[in-house]
Design a protein that fits this description.
Number of domains: 2
CATH architecture of the largest domain: Alpha-Beta Complex
Number of helices: 4
Family: Belongs to the GrpE family.
GO cellular component, one term: cytoplasm
Structural class: alpha+beta
Number of strands: 6
Shape: elongated
Largest sheet: 3 strands, antiparallel
Keywords: Chaperone, Cytoplasm, Stress response
CATH class of the largest domain: Alpha Beta
Strand order of the largest sheet: 1-4-5
Main location: cytoplasm
Oligomer: single chain
Distance between the termini: 113 Å
Subcellular location: Cytoplasm
Radius of gyration: 49 Å
Helix content: 55-70%
CATH superfamily of the largest domain: GrpE nucleotide exchange factor, coiled-coil domain
């Protein structure tokens, strides 16, 4: 409807002024300029797709970079953890060996004695045994498996059963070999004889 109105106005203007016939009226020129502006401002469908593609490509590159960085950080973490684990193992071993070296030194000194009586030898062995117990205590190692203890399959290894009226059922009657543990972890089960 607006088009018809503007065409009518243009026709009337041509009738009034024959010189301007064929020339667009100022109003028509203004409308044409606005149409050109609107056409230039509205993006073409191909341009929109191109912009979205570029944005998606940039986002993909960011995610790819983040993934590569994360993978590199994880690899470094894994290598560092392996080095620390190896270091901790060697440090723990060194600490254990250091505690036991005093026992080894005492045994060497005992063997260096040229003449000693059986009584002296016994005293030396008792001294070495006390040093060994002390070293194990410093390392957090506890003895387990004493006579009279209730039998526990988690801690004891029953190598024989015996009928014993004096001891209660499932009681350790004799210890053949002591067991050792660190905290809740059993290092060696105690070898015992159990009463039925």
């Amino acid at each position: 409807m607006e088009k018809k109105e503007s065409q009518r106005q243009t026709a009337e203007a041509e009738e009034k002024d024959p010189k301007t016939a064929g020339e667009p009226s100022p109003q028509t020129q203004e409308q044409g300029g606005q149409a050109e502006k609107i056409e230039s401002e509205t993006p073409k469908p191909g341009e929109e797709l191109q912009k979205k593609l570029e944005e998606t490509s940039r986002e993909l590159e960011k995610q790819k970079d983040l993934l590569l960085r994360t993978a590199a950080e994880y690899d470094n973490f894994r290598k560092r953890t392996a080095r620390e684990k190896a270091s901790l193992y060697s440090e723990a071993t060194a600490a254990a060996v250091l505690e036991i070296l005093t026992v080894a030194d005492s045994l060497e000194r005992a063997l260096e004695q040229p003449d000693c009586t059986a009584e002296d030898m016994r005293k030396g062995v008792e001294l070495v045994q006390r040093q060994m117990k002390s070293a194990l205590e410093k390392l957090g190692v506890e003895e387990m498996g004493a006579q009279g203890d209730p039998f526990d399959p988690e801690l004891h290894n029953a190598i024989s059963h015996v009928e014993d009226g004096e001891s209660g059922d499932n009681t350790v009657v004799k210890v053949f070999q002591k067991g050792y543990k660190i905290g809740d972890r059993v290092i060696r089960h105690a070898m015992v004889q159990v009463a039925n």
